[in-house]
Amino acid sequence: MSRSTFMWLVDALQDRLQQQQTVMRAPVSVEERVAVGVWWMANIQSYRTIGQQFGLARSTVAAIVMEVARAIAEELHRRVVYLWNTDRVMRAFAAKGFPQCIGAMDGCHIRVRVPVHLAQFYVNCKNYTSVLLQGTVDNVGRFVDIVVGQSGQSQDAHVLVRSSISARMETGLYVPGNPTRTIEGVPVPPLILADAAYPLRRWLIPPYKGHLNAQQAHFNKVHGRARNVVDRAFGRLKARWRCLLLQMPVELRNVKPVVAACCILPNVCEDRGHAVPEVFTEEERRALADAEAAPLDPDPQMPDAAGEAVREALNAWLWRRARRH
């Protein structure tokens, strides 16, 4: 994060953090508190180690981290995490071969520490305790929607139905004007691409599963090429904010604002062209691989006729284009 971006963040949080000065022997400036919070999120270091770097007590660092995370989550979410320039996003996905697409969605596990009596409710399929982060990104990997907090035992489809983006896409209110295009005789609304763990909907398109014919295999290839932007976004997220890589040393009730803040800050950084650090230790690489593991099979879903019609129309359109070229 550059000095100019850091100062923008300080200015954005100034009023909020001045009102919530941590009780301590000597006041800590807003600039230093933001530095402490951002440093903790960007590094795998204990409160004690960071306290030694900044000359602060461990308990003070812990309190500041949560103040800053909550301030970012509550003050900047609406300002930073949103779908902007829909036409440009659609054109960019169309250039990758997929029409009408405004985003890609996926989920990943965030390791958390939970009380012993709750552990059984948070143990995921990889046998560690976690909560799920559902992220939706645009064509360049900016987060346009995030949902965090469901138990790691939850399936992606369960998180989806409890998210506001699902209701807004269902009603056509998420994308301004809900621009619809007729493809192969079928009205196709703005679309979000997802992996096979998600249900098929008129606006949510997972790939085909099972034994595929040549046409379906081609569809999945084009779909995967467009959808992998969300996988790369999760990788960049954890490369920048490494507190998400290993088990988060915060109380369960504090996980949501910290994860939200970590999803907001990449948009701030990428809007300003900052490079992503991509050097991982072997332990961090294993943690990344575990985190991306989603349940293989969604809950049985009733066939969605509108979704089937849209996917089949897209399938035919993509195949016809491929045969022409």
Automatic annotation (TrEMBL):
Q: Which cofactor does it need?
A: a divalent metal cation
Where it sits in the cell: the answer is:
Nucleus
UniProt KW Glycosyltransferase keyword: no
* Record key words, sorted: Hydrolase, Metal-binding, Nuclease, Nucleus
Q: Which InterPro entries match?
A: HARBI1-like, HARBI1_dom
Pinpoint the DDE Tnp4 domain residues: 105-267
Question: Has UniProt tagged this entry with the keyword Metal-binding?
Answer: yes
- Which family does the similarity line name? Belongs to the HARBI1 family.
Q: What is this protein called?
A: Nuclease HARBI1
